[in-house]
Amino acid sequence: MANRLYFQRSAATRIDWTRITSSLGLKGSTAASLQAFKKRNDDAKRKLASLSSQPTTVEFAHYRSTLTNSAVVDDIERSFKAFKPQSYDVGRQLKAIEVFETEAVKSAEATKGRVDREVEGLERTLGNIESARGFEELTVDEVAAAEPEIDKRTEQLVSKGRWQVPGYKVMPSSPPLLFRTASSTSLTSLD
Fold first, then answer.
1. pTM, two decimal places
2. Which of 14, 112, 160, 176 could be stapled to 191 by a disulfide with Cβ–Cβ 3.0 to 4.6 Å?
3. Taking Cα atoms as reference points, which of 150, 141, 152 lies closest to residue 187?
4. What is the DSSP letter of 133?
5. CB of 33 within 8 A of CB of 104?
6. Direct distance between the N- and C-terminal alpha carbons of the chain, in angstroms, rounded to an integer
7. SS3 call for 54
């Protein structure tokens, strides 16, 4: 039992908290929970160190010579010698730590999976952007095929007799307006 406790203490003192956080790539609530746990661990270690440095022996002879009522000192000494420290089963706390660790790993894996999927999607988008032709190289048919809503909206406006797009105004200093003729796929100037 004492040997096992020694190894647990030894392992607890060798925890590299920054390595755990960085190697697992923990972020968000998982990292915050781990930091809170680390703080509690550090506080417990500081308290243990301060208590360990205090003297543990009581000089009852000194108190008998100082106090006039030595019977009180005798009662205290008997109580002191009869005192047996309470031993605690830390299995429950260790189990809670293991559960926390399991949840932290699951959360980290889920976060990693979401990030990996997002990076994959962004890489595909970047590839599409890099391989896309310039806007000036596109034909009206290609734009309409890419976004069918444009044709529907145009048909709707034309059926109502509207020839200008709402909110779009051609300024006098603008280049000539381009439109597509019915008989050809080339762009023709209005001028």
1. 0.34
2. 176
3. 141
4. P
5. yes
6. 96
7. coil
Q: Evaluate whether 140 touches 180 at the Cβ level (below 8 Å).
A: yes
Which residues lie across from 179 on neighbouring strands? 188
Token pair, residue 174, equals 């603008």
Query: Which pLDDT tens digit goes with each residue over 117-128?
Result: 999 999 999 998
pLDDT tens, residue by residue, 31-90: 788 888 888 888 888 888 888 777 778 888 888 888 888 888 889 889 988 888 888 888
- The backbone torsions φ and ψ at residue 92, rounded to the nearest 5 degrees and listed phi first, read -65, -45
CB of 93 closer than 8 Å to CB of 76: no
Spell out the alpha helix ranges (H) of the chain: 2-13, 17-24, 28-52, 60-66, 70-82, 91-131, 140-146, 148-159
- Which DSSP symbol is given to 90? T
